[in-house]
Every structure is written in structure tokens, then in C-alpha cells.
């Protein structure tokens, strides 16, 4: 009888997902929690969440110029700072998800915070007394920009919204990825599919945002545009909650630096499927009930060997346990940082899609037949391309690559990221050439100071959008999966948030580059390249060439580190 009870207890233990709980904080059970069905709720939520975010962000530069009376460069800087802050705050959301709360709780809290910020912006947009005085813009005249309490309300709404966006970005992708069993090939393939479709759903939300929502903002009023965002993020909450019974939620560890008996494997130049696992523990410890018979390795890996001295010079440093596991975790962080840094420049290029590219299109003929397309709807080109390409990539390109390479992953994460970096170089070169053509048309038509649209179609701008959109598809999905799969289990939300932090730093870098370029080119009484209220007098093409050169140097930096990088989680992970 005792043996039967022990067998039953062992069976129940085997049915549980170790380290995971359900929404009521009970042990998560195999077959009931997790899987693609649970992750599908996250994908639907991502459509609504990104719709709420981009409905405003994609057209915010127009709102600041036309209603808050900012100059083009002031508007561009304000938008990049807002978006940069939103993405950088993803690190906070990721840290809280790993250390103190579940990703489930952080999403719900963050969605409510974003809702509050959007309510503030909606109230201001629909109340004339909370807006700056209106004025009729004429050539050479400047309107008084928003100031005082009205400016305070604008920025309060923007940055409360940014706080909510950051929490969502830091918790939602990792919440979806945690639904898959990484110990099985099917689970790892399912996780890869999830990240591809996460970018797909992100693009679906963006498509609705840059078409329907932008049209409403330009034709019905910004109060309705902010209202769409408010409703979208509010609807995302019950949709997310609807999947509660299916989710498995990773138990927070208390600190990303707390000790654990996670697994470290022999590193490989590509994540190819089967690897030799080594469980790193303190000497004499037993690392996991299921693996008592497994070989326990107490020697650190041979990457960054100078860090091995910390372990070799034990005994311990007071209350701090200098374990092999902790040293290996530090190595992981140090080895992924160069990859992280190499994507910042690409995201600085992407920042142009919501700033100067929109302002360029606003000076051009945006008619398609009898329809006038809002300039902020230009991202329809890259997001449509992503929506079409993502399923082809997941269901045709990846299976073919798996058969061709004989590996589980097919195309490595770093190969995807590298492809995106190359496309960003091409995009900046194309953008510079198109800007030269746009200014030549304005000069030849004698319309350098005219407010009327130039006799050149805005489809010329679509080329840079197409290349940058393609770069975004390859890089973002690759980065999300790269950081999630390479990070220790207790740091995954924080690590995945590095993808968004890269976007944040890219937006900040864009603002810094604009400031530096203006400072360098405006000396000696000369006109700065990116200064004034008329885009036709800017030297935007020169700025794009600078971006192209910097992107090329950045790609060489990436190659140097990518060639030397060895993957951590190439196969099954124990522990």
C-alpha cells in the first residue's frame, strides 16, 4: 500500500510543471496548462496592445506639429523621447516579472496604467481650453507652442502611457513564450513559431493603427484617435483574462541574481539541437530531484576564463556564494551585450519611420486615385509586407532551412539579426537618394517655401519603409527569441526586455544624433542641417548618409562578435 501511495505521489509530481503555477497560485499541471492554445490569447492581446500604442505613436509627430505647435525637429525629438522611454521601461516590467510578480500580474497592472494615461490624453484632446490657442499657419510665421499646465498635462498623459507600455512590453512576450515546454523539440519549435507570430500580430495591430486609427485622427479629430487607443487597451484586459485557466505562470525568484540550480550546457556556434548538458552546482549538492543520477559538473566553462578565478579562489566571500552557476550567468550576460549594442543603431534608423519620414511624406502628393492617404499611414507598406512574410517564413522558409541544415532551428537567431542590419544599411541609402529627388522636385517647381503638396507621389517614401520594415521583421523576432533562449530561466523576462531596450536606446540615439548634427553643422553662423520650420530647407539627405555610414560600421562590429558567439541553449535544458 505504501509503495502504491509513493507511486501515486510520484505520478502526480510528474504531471506538474516544476516552477510554474496557475492563475490561482496552484501548481500548474501538464496537459491542462500551457501550450499553443494558451499562447494564442497572448497573440490576440498583442494585436490590441500594439493597436493602442501605434494608433498614437505613428501619428504623434503630426499632432504635436499641428495642435501643440511644435517645430518639426521639436516634434521628432518629443516623439523619439516618448517612444524611447516607453521601450526602456520594459526593463522595469521584465525585472518585476522575474523577481517579485508573475508576468500575468504585471500585464494586468500595466494595461490599467496605460489606460489611465490614454484617458488623460483623450480628455485634453477633446477640451479646447486644455489645448494651446489655435492659429493660422502662414509661410515664415510661427505659432506659440503649448506651455505651462497644458504642457504638463500633455507630458503627464504621455509618460503615464509610456509606463504602462513598458510594463506590457516587459511581460507579454515572455508570458507567451513561457507556455511552451523547452525540454521537448515540439515545445521549442512551438516557441519559435510563437515569436514569429508575435511579430505578425504586432504588425496586424500596427496595420489597423496606421490605416483606420490614423484616418480617424486626421478626419474626425484626435479625441477620437486617443479614444480608439483607450478602448483597445481596455478590451485587451478581458481577452487576456479569458485565458487565465490555461496559462502556466513562472514563479518569481525574488531576484534575478538569486541562486538557482539552473542548467548550463556546453556552448556551440549554432543552436543545433543536441548538446552535452552539464548541471552546475556547489560541490556536494544534489541538483534536482529528477536528476539525482545525472553527472554533476563543478568546473566552469572555458569562455571568458578570467571569470573562473572567482570560483577557483573559493572559499566563499562572506555571505555571497561564488558558485559556478552564478559565474556562468555573468558570462551569459557579458556575451549577449555586444549583440544587444549592435542592434541599437538599427533601431535608430527605425526611429526615422515615425519622425522625418512622416514629415517628408506630408510635403508630397499623398493621393491614390480619389483617396487622400494620411502621411502617418505610410507604415502600411512594411507592416503589410511583414504580415505576408511571417507565415511564409515560419511554414516554408524555416522547414526548408531545417531540412537543408539538418538542425532543429534552421536559421540561427544571429543570422536573422544580421540580415536585418544589412537591410537597414540599404534603407538609409535609399532614403538619402529619395530625399535628393524630393528636394529637386521642390526646387525645380519653385515650391521650396510653398505649403501646397509637391508634384511627386509619396510612394517614393515607401521604398525606405519597405527595407526598414523587412529589417524589423528579421531583427525583432530574432532578438526576442535570442534573449529568451539564451538567458537563465530566472532572468528571461528581463532578458527579453533587452529587445525593447534596444529600441529605446535607438530612439534616444536618434535624438542625440539630430542634436549633434545640428551642433556640428550650425557653427560659424551657418544654417544647421536639421533646423527650422520648413523641411525643404533641411539637409536631410546628408543626415541619412551619415546614418548609412554609421550603420555599416555597426554591422562590422556585429560581425566581429557574432562570428565568435557560442549559443548556450542549443538543445534540451535540465534543471
TrEMBL record:
Query: According to its UniProt record, where is this protein located?
Result: Membrane
Q: Where are the transmembrane segments?
A: 34-55, 75-97, 104-123, 152-172, 193-216, 222-242, 332-353, 373-393, 414-434, 454-480, 500-522, 542-563
Could you name the Gene Ontology cellular component terms for this entry? membrane
This protein's membrane topology, according to the annotation, is:
Multi-pass membrane protein
List residues of the Major facilitator superfamily (MFS) profile domain.
Answer: 35-566
- Cite the entry's keywords alphabetically: Membrane, Transmembrane, Transmembrane helix
Which PROSITE patterns does this UniProt record tie to the protein?
MFS (PS50850)
Q: Which residues form a coiled coil?
A: none
Q: State what protein this is by name.
A: Major facilitator superfamily (MFS) profile domain-containing protein
Amino acid at each position: 500500500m505504501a509503495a502504491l501511495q509513493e507511486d501515486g505521489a510520484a505520478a502526480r509530481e510528474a504531471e506538474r510543471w516544476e516552477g510554474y503555477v496557475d492563475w490561482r497560485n496552484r501548481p500548474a499541471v501538464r496537459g491542462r496548462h500551457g501550450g499553443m492554445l494558451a499562447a494564442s490569447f497572448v497573440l490576440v492581446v498583442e494585436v490590441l496592445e500594439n493597436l493602442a500604442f501605434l494608433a498614437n505613436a505613428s501619428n504623434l509627430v503630426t499632432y504635436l506639429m499641428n495642435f501643440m505647435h511644435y517645430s518639426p525637429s521639436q516634434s521628432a525629438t518629443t516623439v523619439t523621447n516618448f517612444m524611447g522611454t516607453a521601450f526602456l521601461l520594459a526593463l522595469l516590467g521584465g525585472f518585476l516579472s522575474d523577481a517579485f510578480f508573475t508576468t500575468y500580474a504585471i500585464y494586468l497592472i500595466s494595461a490599467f496604467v496605460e489606460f489611465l494615461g490614454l484617458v488623460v490624453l483623450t480628455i485634453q484632446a477633446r477640451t479646447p481650453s486644455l489645448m494651446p490657442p489655435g492659429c493660422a499657419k502662414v509661410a515664415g510665421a510661427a505659432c506659440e507652442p503649448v506651455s505651462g499646465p497644458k504642457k504638463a498635462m500633455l507630458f503627464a498623459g504621455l509618460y503615464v502611457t509610456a509606463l504602462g507600455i513598458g510594463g506590457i512590453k516587459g511581460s507579454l512576450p515572455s508570458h507567451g513564450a513561457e507556455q511552451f515546454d523547452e525540454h521537448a523539440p515540439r515545445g521549442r519549435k512551438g516557441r519559435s513559431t510563437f515569436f514569429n507570430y508575435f511579430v505578425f500580430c504586432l504588425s496586424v495591430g500596427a496595420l489597423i493603427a496606421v490605416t483606420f486609427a490614423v484616418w480617424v485622427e486626421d478626419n474626425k479629430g484626435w479625441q477620437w484617435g486617443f479614444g480608439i487607443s483607450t478602448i483597445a487597451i481596455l478590451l485587451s484586459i478581458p481577452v487576456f483574462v479569458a485565458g487565465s485557466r490555461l496559462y502556466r505562470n513562472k514563479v518569481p525568484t525574488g531576484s534575478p541574481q538569486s541562486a538557482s540550480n539552473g542548467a548550463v550546457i556546453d556552448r556551440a556556434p549554432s543552436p543545433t539541437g543536441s548538446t552535452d548538458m552539464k548541471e552546475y552546482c556547489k560541490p556536494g549538492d544534489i541538483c534536482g530531484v529528477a536528476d539525482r543520477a545525472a553527472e554533476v559538473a563543478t568546473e566552469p566553462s572555458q569562455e571568458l576564463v578570467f571569470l573562473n578565478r572567482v570560483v577557483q579562489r573559493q572559499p566563499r566571500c562572506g555571505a555571497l556564494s561564488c558558485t559556478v552557476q552564478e559565474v556562468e550567468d555573468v558570462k551569459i550576460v557579458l556575451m549577449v551585450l555586444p549583440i544587444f549594442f549592435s542592434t541599437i543603431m538599427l533601431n535608430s534608423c527605425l526611429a526615422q519611420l515615425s519622425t522625418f519620414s512622416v514629415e517628408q511624406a506630408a510635403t508630397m502628393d499623398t493621393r491614390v486615385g480619389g483617396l487622400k492617404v494620411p502621411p502617418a499611414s505610410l507604415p502600411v507598406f512594411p507592416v503589410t509586407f511583414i504580415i505576408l512574410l511571417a507565415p511564409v517564413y515560419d511554414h516554408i522558409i524555416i522547414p526548408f532551412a531545417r531540412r537543408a541544415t539538418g538542425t532543429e532551428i534552421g536559421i540561427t537567431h544571429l543570422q536573422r539579426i544580421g540580415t536585418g542590419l544589412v537591410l537597414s544599411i540599404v534603407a538609409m541609402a535609399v532614403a538619402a537618394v529619395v530625399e535628393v529627388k524630393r528636394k529637386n522636385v521642390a526646387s525645380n517647381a519653385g515650391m521650396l517655401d510653398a505649403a501646397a503638396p509637391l508634384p511627386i507621389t509619396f510612394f517614393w517614401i515607401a521604398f525606405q519603409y519597405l527595407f526598414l520594415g523587412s529589417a524589423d521583421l528579421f531583427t525583432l523576432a530574432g532578438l526576442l527569441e535570442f534573449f529568451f533562449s539564451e538567458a537563465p530561466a530566472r532572468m528571461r523576462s528581463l532578458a527579453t526586455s533587452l529587445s525593447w531596450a534596444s529600441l529605446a536606446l535607438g530612439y534616444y540615439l536618434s535624438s542625440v544624433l539630430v542634436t549633434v548634427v545640428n551642433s556640428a553643422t550650425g557653427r560659424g553662423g551657418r544654417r544647421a542641417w536639421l533646423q527650422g520650420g520648413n523641411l525643404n530647407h533641411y539637409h536631410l539627405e546628408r543626415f541619412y548618409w551619415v546614418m548609412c555610414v554609421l550603420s555599416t560600421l555597426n554591422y562590422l562590429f556585429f560581425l566581429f562578435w557574432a562570428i565568435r558567439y557560442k549559443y548556450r541553449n542549443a538543445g534540451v535544458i535540465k534543471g
